[in-house]
Amino acid sequence: MEKFQQSMYDLIVETSTKLPKDVRRAIARAKARENAGTRAAMALDTIVENIQMADENVSPICQDTGLPTFKIKVPVGVNQMEMKKAIRAAIAEATKNGKLRPNSVDSLTGKNSGDNLGEGVPVIKFEQWENDYIDVRLILKGGGCENKNIQYSLPCELEGLGRAGRDLDGIRKCILHAVYQAQGQGCSAGFIGVGIGGDRSSGYELAKEQLFRPVDDVNPIEELRQLEEYIMENANKLGIGTMGFGGESTLLGCKIGVMHRIPASFFVSVAYNCWAFRRMGVKIDPATGEIIEWLYQDGEDVDFSKELEKAEAAVALEQGNTRVIDLVPPLSEEQVRQLRVGDVVRISGVIYTGRDAIHKYLMDHDAPVDLNGQIIYHCGPVMLKDEEGRWHAKAAGPTTSIREEPYQGDIMKKFGVRAVIGKGGMGAKTLQALKEHGGVYLNAIGGAAQYYADCIKSVEGVDLLEFGIPEAMWHLRVENFTAVVTMDSHGNSLHEDVEKSSLEKLSQFKEPVFK
Ligand code: SF4
């Protein structure tokens, strides 16, 4: 087993930097469905470009490399303690080499361990089996999509759909509702794993287990096969689209599993995964620890480099129909009030990262830099220091903005911030503040970590590094950083509009389908 640690390192790097073939095919199908020239098509083009860049740079597809979860099946007699030790060492090494972001945080003190290790992290689950090889599967599931998981206790009342009873039709309603409530915040278009039955914890476990099934497999249980097919056909009619911009592709895969329950409980648990569906697997020789075979690599591969040529044409088309505005911070109130929902902006200059810890800090402290007229970027990047002590951004896409909703409006007013960049949109409190103060919300493409890292020309400084790399305030000099205005200073919000229209569409599915 001496090669096992190296095999785990290879698995981690491959999972973080390359999407498996079945996921690539699902993304290619979504691209084919989306009409060229729309905002959703532009978002998908950026996603495709990002996948290609991650392949070429062997760098994380998304900066949020998530919670590493290993599912391992071993023949009798394999030393699980040694395997655990090797996996932990491989995780620490991958973090040091910038293939994983340091993501493990003490829940009480907020301190980042710096190496992705900690109490319960990574998650490693063993099971014994009769086969003579080891099967290791890994999923890197980020926070934006993990936060959109949802569990229903049947019977229940669902917005737009009415009563969901304890039957197949009630399950159908829960799954449609799960897709609706995620909107674009989990970086749609996404994949869902559904667990029917169990208790609260085993139900979620079963839901997550479904994400390890190949995207194009067929459910062996006939009722569930039909339900999966129904969901794939109809969830895409909700019009949520890529990044919640509206559009044809909202769901890329749906897998449903079932287990027994006790009579008093009936749970439907849904695990949501973003388009950056990083899960991979290997078969390992138990004698040497070497990789015998890579999993999820059957079938046709998608050559995204060809897609890129088409993408450039589509972006040109989109920009031909849209106002494209260059911004150089600091911004004035007048400049910001001229921006409207739907405008594309290209930013060049210095922007400042800030996410959960920074927002909480700024509520009661002075800012470390003058933020008047500046732009805050909701981003927790992967950063590496070179031998001369200079920092470089290795992955730097947006994080979910809604977490900052309690703080954002107050911070913008207190420090004179004119724009925030993030993903998934913000709520009514921020929209009101944008109106009163003169500010905009700019939606970048979630998960496009390589695409945006490429826009960062230098790291000019960092403050509050004691919060850990993802939470520090990085001063990033960017060039042609592109984002879409989705909330403006006139009270318009694309997110609000898409949520309203998708709720109307959801209510079309109120009538029973499965008896
Ligand atoms: S693609 Fe979006 S939801 Fe997925 S890990 Fe990245 S930021 Fe999170």
Protein architecture, described:
It is a single chain. This protein is α/β, with parallel strands linked by helices and 515 residues long. 35% of the residues lie in helices and 24% in strands. The chain has 15 helices and 20 strands. The chain has helices at residues 4-17, 21-33, 39-57, 80-96, 143-146, 168-182, 200-210, 222-235, 304-321, 333-337, 356-364, 405-415, 428-437, 449-455, 494-506, and strands spanning 67-75, 123-129, 134-141, 150-153, 156-158, 162-164, 190-196, 251-258, 267-273, 278-284, 291-294, 324-327, 344-353, 375-377, 382-385, 391-395, 419-422, 440-443, 456-463, 473-487. The protein has a 5-stranded mixed β-sheet. A 5-stranded mixed barrel has the order 13-14-17-18-20. A hairpin with a 5-residue loop joins strand 15 and strand 16 (391-395). It is globular, with a radius of gyration of 23 Å. The protein starts with a helix and ends in a 9-residue tail after the last helix. The structure holds iron/sulfur cluster. Iron/sulfur cluster (SF4) is lined by residues 62, 64, 66, 142-145, 186-187, 274, 276, 397, 399, 446-447.
